[in-house]
Amino acid sequence: MPRRGLPLQARTRWLLLGVSLLLSLVLLTYLLECAPPPDSSPALPGPAGELVGKEYYQALLQEQEERYQNRAASLKRQIGQLKQELQDMSEKLKALQDKKGLAGGGAREQEPNDLLEYLHSQIDKAEVGTGARLASEYAVVPFESFTATKVYQLETGLTRHPEEKPVRKDRRDELTEVIEAGLEVINNPEEEEEGQDEEQRLTYTDVDFVEGLYRTERDKGTQYELFYHKEGVTGFRQVTLFRPFGPLMRVRSSTLEATGTVLNIIVPLAGRTEAFAQFMRNFRDVCILQDRLVHLTVVYFGQEGLTEVKIILETVASEASFSNYTLVPVDEEFSRGRGLDIGARAWKKGDVLMFFCDVDIYFTAEFLNTCRLNARPNKRVFYPVVFSLYNPAIVYGNLEIAPPMEQQLAHKKDAGFWRDFGFGMTCQYRTDFLNIGGFDLEVKGWGVEDVHLYRKYLHSDLIAVRTPVAGLFHLWHEKQCADELTPEQYRMCIQSKAMNEASHSHLGMLVFREEIESHLRKQAFQTHSNSKPAE
To answer: CB of 288 within 8 A of CB of 322?
Structure first.
């Protein structure tokens, strides 16, 4: 006989199981509805009493952690570099001391025992702790000031600005390194500075940097004065740092053969035959009669004046028995970059040192050797800074006639200026010019193309040597800025025209000419009145 209890018990278990599942589902639904959202967090007091989530503090903590990690990495890098430099310079100094010790004899200045002592002696010699007795106000080495983003400088030349951002990466890195070094001094005081109050034990960051000063004494080092201020603190923190210069170190010694190097002078030209005749007189005196290792390439645009240029070249060649020249006529609109490119490619005898020149340039025999010494194939290109002469009618306006050209070639403030915004005169090898891509031939007319070429070299592995030279002059001539120039070219042309006319003092005399003449008339009248006999 079958047992009825078993089916009943089975149904009861299923019923209980179903109720349990139902209760679990209800509980789960309740938890999902009542639980806070996953991204919410307990509100905590934030800046200015606001309630913010913990994510704010996590982000803040992460930001601080990354900043300290970056600073630690930077300091480790600097420590490693300094250790290596210290080791190298110690070895050099020891070798130098040994060499001087072998030389022996005589009273001489006591040499430092090690490099650290030498570096400290540089600080003692510099005008850091005490002032130095100077001959005049012009002997002072002035400071330049800076903030975290700007540098305020005295010696601006014609291209730098009184206030500017540090453009060069090494200048930016230098100032960043100095600011971080000042923070390290403040935040990690030495033992003698341990007795500080709570205000002074605050941790300073780069945002607390206010301003700094620096100056360089070329035989001693660079001094930095840094000022920091933390919000809520009444006082400022000042840190003085000094980057001493070490002893001279030998890098290399080599022999250069400059006297046998042929120089191809390339001159683009259109019209201006009188200026070309003057250029050829200088070329004959310097290149033909003295140097004798020069080839002249003239690229002439257009037909007007071409015959006169041919006659000038043939006359000089005949009188001086000179045949190393090439005249390339081009029936196109004038383009300086195009002319120099044609002149460079016209040379068919392999590699050659080229001097890109203009018809208004006057150079000496010494400059030709300077050109040869500072340009090397696949290594260096030479960009000399030209001394540009002012308008002789203004400079020598008080004379009946201007002095001869040779007497005008003087590096004086009222006679001219260093043309540090111009990059047109350059010495470079033909292979380097072709490998870098030459000029931008889309540029027409005057300007810009030389800057583009210069920038190409700056972005390459070649060294661009930029320096004023004594034997290179730009002769004054009246400049016309054509309407066809682009806005950038026209601006550069007007800038060049304004700077090319006269010095600041001479222009001032022209501006105030009427006032000066009025004063002279009054003085003359007063003198005449005083000289009359009393009645």
So the answer is: yes
Burial degree of 447 (CB within 10 A; 0-12, 13-18, 19+): buried
In angstroms, the Cα distances linking 131 to 83, 127, 128, 199, 522 are: 32, 6, 7, 32, 49
Phi-psi region of 51 (alpha: psi -120 to 50; beta: other; left: phi over 0): beta
481 token code pair? 């800025």
At residue 532, the pLDDT reads 65
Phi, psi of 361 (to 5 degrees): -95, 135
**466 sits in which H/E element:** strand 463-474
pLDDT tens per residue across span 52-68: 566 766 777 777 777 77
Residues near 434 by beta carbon (within 8 Å), at least 6 away in sequence: 344, 345
pLDDT for 518 beyond 90? no
Q: Are 489 and 482 spatial neighbours (Cβ–Cβ below 8 Å)? A: no
Query: Structure tokens of 422?
Result: 């111009």
Q: Residue 153 burial by CB count (10 A; 0-12/13-18/19+): exposed, middle or buried? A: middle
For the ranges 222-226, 481-485, 523-527, the one whose mean pLDDT is highest: 222-226
Whether the pLDDT of residue 347 is over 60: the answer is yes
